[in-house]
């Protein structure tokens, strides 16, 4: 078989991930690799840990990526902490809450859920009341629910869980690097981020962080694998409550990410280069400047969509600034519009899952994709394709509203930093 | 914190992985990404499947990568097939046999092992006799044991297992793309490869393949996750014997790698580009030409090492052509020598694990690293550092023997293809 060289079309990717990768990250990935125990490589591992701590706004020692997509990080944290029969409370406000349930159930947890309609978030006090009632070992929750474009406040829930001695594990995949995530300030015990969204690094790594409350559980379940265990490791014994997965065993991963450098997997070299460069870009821009940029362009997008006559889906007071959900006008085939946008304009937006499929589109403003020209491209393509599909919209108004926003004096100042 | 730009020293990587990445693969990774459901991207997914079938020499439909390091592929296959209490027979001849035990035990298998000394392989008839005695559901075994440099023949074991209706699952991480692996011919039911060795692609993906015997088990355990399941999926029910891991659930991964494209994880775009280019390089070179090249340079390396006065470790009749194990001369500190080779010459070789640590070095001849100049560099650096360490060796003989080999008429012809 003769396979042609790789050639990809130019795309404007405005989905909630994966989004366009920063050119500096793409370039970093073409750097020749190093051996996994080469001191120059272990230095890079340490640098990534250091930058991840800044990203997560934490003093936690443990902050490193799991080699796999975002859900690999979720599974690694949950399976390392959950022992069969453990009570886990999961407030669900979208698809990724269900994913947390799914994973916890597979690892034998006794799962309690509470749900609110997709498009809303929970009053934190209601969750706290449920925590007091259920008395779980763990609360697992999503921060930015990419399926609905909503962001759950956690600033009261975290301290309450800490006081009640309940662990709080949070999926910040869709918010990290694009919206504020204060791991220590909010008392989050274990946190999972993603690379392919606001960090503008390709999918394939899941940065996580966790504190000593979680580490204590992990260490109590530790067993070094046969074939590399020392006599001392073996003396520590064959724990009955050992972690179920080998690949996701944080007790062993810790040893690999510590000076002991005990071999576990072979670290994904080029992806680590990519993450390192992505983190450098975040810290160079400044965390809060970056959050500001995400909100800034999100507002331009919303102004454009509304001016076009479209309606934003979900509770606007708890909107995830990195994902904007738009109601598909009645009678319009959402997938047809998306397909035309991609084929004719090279602009990609997303549909949603389950009950929201066909009801809303999701437009991301994430990382490197979160730029003025991309906002203008998506508004332009969406308008043209909507007209083509026969929708009644305010022609020409979307781009004018976005341009008005960008040209307004107060905005112009902020825009200088972009 | 101000982090400096990524800068890595030039290395000659002669470990058994990760090895030097082919420059064409590095370049492919700097290609802008595509959305995961972009038809141009799903075409690439299909192309990778097609090329993997050729690599594995199989007609299996299922051949795709797991997003994670090699052991993620091992865990995905084993955990999707093993149900608690299943008997698994694991013949162990090195560290990675122990890893198979480790993973199977964690998933509740009733594990039976047989061991032979590290440095040897099993007489296949002995394994077959044990299969008849134990009557396991699965035999799991390593093909190329990178910890000892030995390669286990499987051509009799496979057909025997098929006849006894036992599944044979094989770790070919260290051999695939460098030594012959005939999945269909040898009747291997499930096979896990690696990228960072003979494919010269960075670590971060584990290509696997499996046949309908395995698929049948996987489908019997299938459950589509809540949040994306259709009514039909839900009607299929909540299987009691469902697969333990979500991330490694091959039933769901199959749906993602099929025309249904049911969302599971977000495929690691840049790594898939890398794998695609790595596979193109393998198929352009030709599978058997590539195996020939690996053996060709392995012989040069062995000639050089022996001429230097060093001894090869392990059964030479069952040597893995991609890894050469060398006994560390008595009284020499193996790690000191390796460190000096790296620091002074930028040449990296490996130690080994467990009982062999400090006893042998392991030198890889894998993929893009398997080139004449690398063989000559490793021999040169090793000799100089051994002399520096006070070892008594035949000075100057190693390189002369390798050059003799390369310059010999019969070799010259083969070398033209390299």
If interface size is counted as residues with C-beta under 8 Å from the partner's C-beta, which chains form the largest one?
A-B, 89 and 89 residues
The N- to C-terminal Cα distance of chain A equals 46 Å
Give the overall silhouette of chain A. Answer: globular
Strands of chain A, count: 13
On the 0 to 100 scale, the average pLDDT of chain A is: 95
Q: How many discrete domains of chain A? A: 2
Domain Aminotransferase class V (chains A, B): 41-351
Organism (chains A, B): Ureibacillus thermophilus
Modified residues (N6-(pyridoxal phosphate)lysine) (chains A, B): 197
GO molecular function, one term (chains A, B): alanine-glyoxylate transaminase activity
Describe what this molecule looks like in 3D.
The structure is a homodimer of 418-residue chains. By secondary structure, chain A is an alpha/beta fold. Chain A folds into 2 domains: 22-282, Aspartate Aminotransferase, domain 2, CATH 3.40.640; 287-415, Aspartate Aminotransferase, domain 1. Chain A has 15 helices and 13 strands. Chain A has helices at 23-29, 39-55, 70-81, 95-106, 124-134, 157-163, 212-220, 231-235, 250-256, 269-285, 287-308, 334-345, 372-388, 397-407, 409-415; strands at residues 12-13, 62-67, 87-92, 110-115, 138-142, 144-145, 150-151, 167-171, 190-192, 205-210, 323-327, 347-348, 360-364. In chain A, strands 2-10-9-8-5-3-4 form a 7-stranded mixed beta sheet, with helices on both faces. A two-stranded parallel ribbon of chain A has the order 1-12. Chain A is globular, with a radius of gyration of 22 Å. The relative contact order of chain A is 0.16. At the A-B interface, helix 1, helix 2, helix 3, helix 4 and helix 10 of A face helix 1, helix 2, helix 3, helix 4 and helix 10 of B. Chains A, B: This is Alanine--glyoxylate aminotransferase family protein. Chains A, B: Belongs to the class-V pyridoxal-phosphate-dependent aminotransferase family. Chains A, B: Substrate binds at residue 362.
